[in-house]
Amino acid sequence: MLVYPSSIDLSSRTLRFLSRQLAARRREIGTRWRRLSATRQALLALAHLRRGDTYAQLAAGFGVGIATLYRYIREAVEALSTLAPSLAEAMRTIRAKAFVILDGTLLPIDRIAVDTPYYSGKHKRHGMNVQVLTDPFGQLLWTSPALPGSTHDLTAARQHGIIEALAEAGLKCWADKAHQGAGGTVRVPFRGRRLKWWKRRRNSTHAKIRCLGERAMATLKGWRLLRKLRCSTNRITDVVKAVLVLHHALA
């Protein structure tokens, strides 16, 4: 296999942040020696998350076995995911915002037709449903645990307790038509084709506000691993949390 140098569109600050987390974890578990240093381990984890490089590609580039590489990446993802805020913790920051934007996204996964729970009829593909909260400027604030792609956005939002948390905080929230019927402080556009002029005007204003939330989706999809996940569905929540922590570390 041929090996060549490449680049990752992340700052050295991100590398240092993850390196410190991995070094602290090694001290915690009493690791004496590793094939790769904490910095090199952080680099390969970032290459996997940001560029979506496969285990075979990374193993050849870093000179380690695939089994070792798997352990390194899983350790890095777990170290990051433990730093991700829960919804209750995120609400402390969210309460200070004028309003938030709630949106759902489908993270594609490699599943076959028999895996019905993961098939999204809306997107016509298999994936995992993730709910995202952003601030008025479209900055990513919080991501939910991943649910099977067949889960409706409103069902997911209720299951995660997002609707109740926003209502308790009295915070206005802008969402799309998929959250119709959420109630509380969640605002959604009017549905229908032949709407009165004032309803069309309100929908237009709603769309201008909610479209800012697409920036957060672009932020998530900027990590290429999330464009096509090939890992176990049980690990996807930790991967998304790891990306959230790295995003906040960059902010």
Radius of gyration: 20 Å
The overall average pLDDT, rounded, is 89
Total strands: 7
Low-pLDDT stretches are: none
What is the H/E order? HHHHHEEEEEHHEEHHH
Assign the structural class, choosing from mainly alpha, mainly beta, alpha/beta, alpha+beta, or little secondary structure. alpha/beta
Task: Choose one word for the global shape.
Answer: elongated
Termini separation:
37 Å
What is the overall number of helices? 10
How much beta, percentage-wise? 5-15%
Biggest sheet features:
7 strands, mixed
Helix content: 40-55%
Count of separate structural domains: 2
List the helices and strands and how they pair.
Blueprint: H1 12-29, H2 38-51, H3 55-62, H4 66-81, H5 87-94, E1 99-108, E2 119-120, E3 125-134, E4 140-143, E5 147-148, H6 153-159, H7 162-169, E6 172-174, E7 186-187, H8 197-210, H9 214-221, H10 236-250
Parallel strand pairs: 1-6, 6-7
Antiparallel strand pairs: 1-3, 2-3, 3-4, 3-5
Helix pairs in contact: 1-2, 1-4, 2-4, 4-10
